[in-house]
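agent> Task received from the user: take the single chain below, predict its 3D structure, and emit structure tokens. No templates, no multimer pairing.
agent> Plan: (1) validate residues, (2) run structure prediction, (3) serialize to tokens, (4) report one or two observations.
agent> Step 1 OK, no nonstandard residues flagged.
tool_call: predict_structure(input=
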Amino acid sequence: MNDRLPVAATERPAPVVLRAHFASALPELAIPWQAQRWPALRLLWLDDGLAEALGWSPAWLRSPAGVALLGGQSLPPGARPVAQRYAGHQFGAWVPELGDGRALLLGEAELRDRGVVRTVDVALKGSGPTPLARGGDGRAVLGPMLREALVSAAMHALGIPTTRTLAVLATGETVWRDGVPRPGALLVRVAASHLRVGSLQWAAAQQDPALLRRLWWWAVQRHDPALAQTAPAAAGPAPDADRVQAWLQAVGVRQARLVAQWMAVGFIHGVMNTDNMTLSGETIDYGPCAFMEAFEAATVYSSIDLGGRYAWGNQPRIAQWNLARLAEAVLPLLHPEPDRAVAAATAAVQAFGPAYQRAWRAVMRAKLGLAGPAQPLASGPWDGLHGAGADADDAWAAQDDALIAAWLQALQAQQADWTLVHRRLADLAEACAAGVPWPTAAAQTLGPLLAQPEGLHDWLARWQARLALDGRPWAERAVALRSANPLVIARNLRVEEALHAAEQGDLGPAQALLAALTQPFAARSDDDPFVQPAPRAWAQRYVTFCGT
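)
tool_result: status=success, residues=548
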């Protein structure tokens, strides 16, 4: 193991505190390690708002001492950086030992968000090889780190649960990827935790029931504190069975809602292996991710996803598959009798389907401007995921599910941009509110996006009839549709342009893109470069890479 690094200087305006709770509680999953020493660390990106929420001075973080801390070169007293162990299924194949090959959990910090204080992880990515590197060089390059910074910022602005990027630093090293020299970089990530489905899988594979239970209980206390307050069964062979099953269902609901949000904005994660699915319900690991433009349910961008396993339309099914692997890992905690344990696990996994369908209906109702029975129109994209009706079907559920399915089927032949076609529904509603006849309004707003406008006529008639059912005025519906449908996403071409410029030393395009991404629902002109999809020929050739 590399030598202990020096403690940071005390010039910081307020103490930076990093606890070692995970490292202390679960040493079996935590390998003590230190970040690589870098020749010339330089701060390229800092999220000032996130730093302030952590109680860390952005001005101090830009100082030499702050940069040294962000780069893992100089840490506060009490910090015990570790590489976390986990296993996982990668493209469906079991890999018993994965873990942080080029990442380090620096420790836990307190984050203040809208008056609520919660514990978060602060971790490095690209911090040098660890004992889990599996032959890799442990480095990261600027392009993939900046991609994660930009896309995670976009997801946060959209209101989608995500890990966040506190900082990106240049390391001063040249890193070779595919025979090409690239500028080395390091990312500082803040996450609700780094516990993954693969974390429980690794613990289960050790055949140590006590370790498995300790890790499960750690996850419950971190992410489901209300469940942690419930009492276990008073007696019997499986006192934790009810709580484990309830926890599995809670993880499933979080994942169902997260994937519904991904689907709603056209996000394709690209590598939904079990080691990339968090127990917290946050999006993590943005390696080969991208956003769908022209609608096609089978859209996939990742260079390594040759079979389309993680295509846009497959993401809900894969999330349930991953939940089944989590359920398998905790079978010993459900019941000592295998049949009863499997029955309890199966019930939890099967609950994912209805949970996802309710979440998908909720987000698509918002995107299509539909109100449920005796419910107001959504004032944002995710209103229906929480509160009244979020956990049950209603009288209009079946017909709305059919309408949503028919919308996807109708769009399949249109080659319409997924983001813009929904935003144009707001323009259609606004035109109708202004007295423009329905057929004219539809032709003017949606027509330019469609390959075969007449192919949408039947669906639009069904939509119009459904709108009459909840009876909201056009003007009110137009406002709701604008609040639910973003105009700006992390367009693939704009992201690639920003990454290319940054590798040439120009961060201007990335800064301009970030400014647009933080205001995804704001009005912009039709010819705004952050609104327009890529040329069709470019989009059809676009491929993403993991960057490892």
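agent> Step 4: summary for the user.
The CA atoms of residues 331 and 338 lie 8 Å apart.
agent> Done.
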